[in-house]
Design goal:
This protein has 8 helices and 11 strands. Helices cover about 35% and strands about 20% of the residues. Helix 1 links the parallel strand 1 and strand 2. Helix 1 crosses helix 3 and helix 5 packs parallel to helix 7. The chain is of the alpha/beta class and about 250 residues long.
Amino acid sequence: MSVPQTETAPTATSGGGFHRVLLKLSGEALMGDRDYGIDVGVVRALADEIACVREGGVEVAIVVGAGNFYRGLAAAAEGMERATADYAGMLATLLNALALQDALERRGAVTRVQSALAVAEVAEPYIRRRAIRHLEKGRIVIFAAGTGNPFFTTDTAASLRALEIGADAILMAKHGVAGVYDGDPRTDPAARFIPRLTHLEAIERGLKVMDTTALSLCMDNKLTIHVFELADGNIARVLAGERVGTVIETP
């Protein structure tokens, strides 16, 4: 696909050899120290870092969760039908996507939100070729509403979208966790940090990195996952090739 020179964004890759990445943000990452909702300061700081990464020549797509607003599984446990709860969760991801889009555009970045559910007034429908075209033209693409199907998490959506757009890796920015541990470091002081492991090891050990469907997709297609804390500068450090957090890959 040819791209006119006047519209083409810089094609230089980062020091880590990344040309196109998918950034997976949990909903909790957007709420900062709040109990729920969105912390505007956190979102603005995140937008600044993502915009700087894009200006450095790396094509960036984003999948955002909805844990700061709604969790389908928790609602299902309270009696709501699981499918209905999951659809509500997908709509909550759209709220986060729009907030992130606004912060990025205030920063000067050009963005597009693509939704797996039809919400034509605020977002484009998800179309793979269009998403790739946006990335080629230097736009940041935010994927909302997960896969558009109940019973699938936003982790699975991140794996699926990363493979569809041909991303070099998935960057999983975690809230308050430095990477992958063999337990929950927030409740278990003895939990040990794991700097590197394979997809199969993560599945077999039941590590809470991604759900099994998402990990299996990445394993089958040898898609590397970088798991790290969402702290100032960490996204840029990963893209520069620094060892930050945990690397999950299948040789």
